[in-house]
Amino acid sequence: MSDSSSSHDSPPPPPTTTIVDDSETTVANDSDSNAKCQTAIQSLATIVTTTNIPSTISLLLDDDAVSTAILSLLLRPDSGAGDNNLCRWLYDTFQSAEPSLQLLVLRFVPLIAGLYLSRVPLRQPQAGFEAVLLALYAHETTSRAGQALTVNIPDLSHPSIYHESKGLTKNNSTCLNIAVISSTLDPHGTVRSTRRARIVGVALELYYSKISRMPRESKLNFCESCEKWAGQNGEKEQSRAVIPTLSDDSWREEENVAMGGRSERDSGRIPLPWELLQPILRILGHCLLGLKVEDREVVEAANKACQSLYLRSLHDINAKAILATGSLLRLREMALDPKNQIDHTEISNDAVISV
Amino acid sequence: MLGDQSTELSENGEDEIIRKLCANGMCMKTSEVEAKLDEGNIQEAESSLREGLSLNFEEARALLGRLEYQRGNLEGALRVFEGIDLQAAIQRLQVSAPPEKSATKKKGPREPQQSVSQHAANLVLEAIYLKAKSLQKLGRITEAARECRSVLDSVEKIFQQGIPDAQVDTKLQETVSHAVELLPALWRESGDFQEAISAYRRALLSQWNLDNDSCARIQKDFAVFLLHSGVEATPPSLASQIEGSYIPRNNVEEAILLLMILLKKFNLGKAKWDPSVIEHLTFGLSLCSQTSVLAKQLEEVMPGVFSRVERWNNLALSYSAAGQSSAAVNLLRKSLHKHEQPDDLVALLLAAKLCSEEPSLAAEGAGYAQRAINNAQGMDEHLKGVGLRMLGLCLGKQAKVPTSDFERSRLQSESLKALDGAIAFEPNNPDLIFELGVQYAEQRNLKAASRYAKEFIDATGGSVLKGWRFLALVLSAQQRFSEAEVVTDAALDETAKWDQGPLLRLKAKLKISQSNPTEAVETYRYLLALVQAQRKSFGPLRTLSQMEEDKVNEFEVWHGLAYLYSSLSHWNDVEVCLKKAGELKQYSASMLHTEGRMWEGRKEFKPAIAAFLDGLLLDGSSVPCKVAVGALLSERGKDHQPTLPVARSLLSDALRIDPTNRKAWYYLGMVHKYDGRIADATDCFQAASMLEESDPIESFSTIL
User: Fold this and answer.
1) Residues of chain A contacting B391 with CB distance shorter than 8 Å
2) What pLDDT does residue A242 have?
3) Is there a contact between A235 and B193 if contact means CB atoms under 8 Å apart?
4) Contact B534/B509 with Cβ under 8 angstroms?
5) pLDDT value at residue B498
């Protein structure tokens, strides 16, 4: 009965704010983190031999060649094993508690989670992937002290900073509706199968908290994983009628071309409990609506993932998921509508220009 | 890119629009000026303007800049604007404006003065704003944001006491509104999220005299940003609060607040309906699992926005996600009425699913499922499998409602047929595999049931607790208790301790079945420790939010222990446990049943029968109580014949509800025996002994 409380030796530091201000770190820390980065880079060079590893971590973060090399290593059938060098590197690198190195590891979370969950029914040893995911889980557990994340659903009868209310404030406390976005975290030293979805879900929550710093390829990986998890690829083709979208049909042809063999198509469907689906939907919401500059490829991929998940939630008759995925799809559809693309900050183009 | 587009646009329009420049009551055509500008001769263009329209330097420049901007000549516009020392102009205005303003406030009738000042201010501010727009279109976003911010800073400097509502110049207001709306968008585009957040808050919390529509747009944009940017905003500063007002603590709260405010504005007719707002709110509230709040919001939306069927269906989804099934079913009945949209697949499937959870609605649900199957054609054919699955579930549930034996077996076999049909559509759906397994188990086809149970565990990778429990129950029904225990232990290994309650209970029961009561008591003791620990380690939050998934139910533990002691005939212990259980849940038929067993064990038949009857009064369909009363009466019937018919009818009734209750068969056999119907008695005893060989330690229906 021992839930061994933690599997890592040095607890990671308290959570840093999303935008890490590098200039604030002191010189001493700088040299320390530099050393950590160099070690990480050197050990990566022994694993990834097909391409040159850049010499600084900031270059490494954006290096497509290295990412591609790591991706192809991860895609190997035995990549999740406990003795896998890359998994060990990812684990050690994340445990270094160096924010930029952690970002580098998080970048691969979509692929790791995707492969891991889809490979579970195949009964392959995946101790390597599990170690990485547990490290992320442990990091999140310590950084929020195991506490649940909650939201007070506002009640408009109380005045707020954004609105006034004439309604009398009769009972301040009882009106608040507390919603749990992410429940309490118990420490886990191993992946027990009934907690698997939660552990991966928390890793995805962590990924989401840094998502504005994730490269687009990482988001594309994520969208692909979602489609596999939903396992509805075969049906999306036919089910135009139920998907709440009207206009853009271009993806359908693309998919006809892209659709692989049957076995590829059928594998990968996983149970999608809410603890996993919720962070997935938040990430997809970001890819669809939260990018700072419209990136068509990411948006299209997220839209496809959303369609798959919508169909999946129809198959599961999961009302909450139907609502969430349906609204994302309709929002995407609205964004494509030219009448919603008016620039309201444009000045009127009068023929008469006067002072 | 953007620049090119707008150039094209204005060139297209150029043939039709002959632009004019007007000032001081004079007008001139732009062609001459444009020609000079095209030659790159800004000074000449400027001086011809100053002469033609008697303007000062800045006015002429501002006009030229705007002309260039409208022509789509962004680089040119920038060159023109850079020629004006905007900061100096602002400083001049700043010096002159406040006294004038205070003067107008006091004396009132000096409005011309005021409007001149606003006019001059607008000239400068518009110039800066257009500079920002030009920079934006040229892709120099950060510079654009800085310029745009300086528009707002300048407004605040020039009009330190705010712009009086009645006197504000419409052009000035337009420039201000544009700048307020543009600034956060620019910061967002530039990737400076913290600036974007403070720009949004500045726009919404300061007084810019925005019109409702542009305020609504900014609120919506900010809400979307908060929900989706993935950047956690720091809560609004304390300075901006009015006492006692609600302050959102995090992104989701702030976004939902803004969206709700927007919706309220729409409902009051203060802003134009924007369909995306309700979609954003739907997304946000579903993420928080607060769909009951969403339902309330949907109900408040003015009629005419949605079609009624759309509204009913969305409400039904919200209520069903919030666990309010009967409200959802009522709404779906309306929307699936033959005069509305009787063929809507999503509504049909949802209705079927909700009905499949409730025996009294199962027949209605089967009807919906059948309609869904009939309508799942063409592109939606893949949903036929879901329809079949729902049909199977509904029929299976319907079979539980007491009907004739014949009807029951017909429903059961049809249920199996439907589920088998569904699996042809969805061979990879673990839920379906599980349901099929349970259906087989309830019909005591244990071989098939165990095959599906194993398949389910494989398909889900053992991640679903009920799969383990199901396999253990099937094994126990096959009287393979030690294997069942192995499965239970494996499941315990895969479960975190707070979820182990049901498994431990199962384990205790398995121990009893293997005649190992001391270990069973030990298991219960551990369970109780777990309950205590759980109560200590979680604050009220945990119990509040996770009430429904609270697996270690203290009442169940005490009651289970009481039952265990009763089978060991430790009546005093039973009494203690029952008292504990009674403190947690006062009225429970199953507890009264155990109490009755206790009295029975102590040979006190009157209180025993009273307890059983109380149990029946609480829950008229409590099979254990029925059987117990029947058994007591049949025992007495040995001597007093008159009680036998009563016992017989009670036991028959119990068997109508649960035809697999072996005790009921046994006592019915006894009744027949005492009455001298030996052949009937033999049949009943045979049934009882057959059932004993396939009786699970907990009813299969407990896991669905």
Assistant:
1) none
2) 55
3) no
4) no
5) 78
Tell me which amino acid residue B144 is.
A
Contact partners, residue B213, CB within 8 Å, separation at least 6: B271, B272
A322-337 CB burial, b ≥16 within 10 A, e <16 = bbbbbbbbbbbbeeee
- Does the pLDDT value for residue B71 go beyond 90? no
Decide: B601 and B569 in contact? Cβ < 8 Å: yes
Mean pLDDT of chain A: 79
pTM of the model: 0.85
* Nearest-CA distance B644 → chain A (Å): 49
Query: What's the confidence (pLDDT) of residue B476?
Result: 92
Digit-coded pLDDT (tens) for B106-163 = 333 444 444 456 777 788 888 889 999 999 999 899 999 998 998 888 888 777 766 6
A336 confidence band (pLDDT: 50, 70, 90): confident
Evaluate whether B519 touches A156 at the Cβ level (below 8 Å): no
* Secondary structure element (H or E) that encloses residue B425, with its range: helix B405-425
Q: Judged by CB atoms within 8 Å, which residues 502-531 of B form the interface with A?
A: none
Residue among A212, A330, A355 minimizing CB distance to B230: A212
- pLDDT at B234 (0 to 100): 83
Pair type for strands A352-354 and B20-23? parallel
| B114–chain A Cβ distance below 8 A for any pair | no
So what's the pLDDT on residue B366? 95
User: Taking CB atoms and an 8 Å cutoff, what residues of chain B touch A189?
Assistant: none
Q: Which pairing describes strands A149-153 and A177-182: parallel, antiparallel, or unpaired?
A: antiparallel
Q: Does B381 touch chain A (CB under 8 A)?
A: yes
Q: H or E element: which one contains A128?
A: helix A127-143
What number is the ipTM of this complex?
A: 0.86
Q: How far is the first Cα of chain A from the last one, in angstroms, to the nearest whole number?
A: 81
End-to-end CA distance of chain B: 59
Residue A43 has pLDDT above 70, yes or no: yes
d(CA B263, CA B183): 24
Residue B363 contacts A where some CB pair is shorter than 8 Å: no
With CA atoms as reference, report the closest residue to A151 among B652, B285, B693: B285
Q: Pairing between strand A177-182 and A352-354?
A: unpaired
β-strands A177-182, B20-23 pairing: unpaired
| Residue pLDDT, tens place only, A266-319 | 467 899 999 999 999 999 999 999 887 778 999 999 999 999 999 999 999 999
- Measure the CA–CA gap between B358 and B689, rounded to whole angstroms: 31
The rounded distance, in Å, linking the Cα atoms of B528 and B524 is 6
Chain A residues in contact with B542 by the CB 8 A cut-off are 148, 183-184
Q: What is the Cα B474 distance to its own chain's centre?
A: 35
Tell me, rounded to whole angstroms, the distance of Cα B88 from its chain centroid. Answer: 55
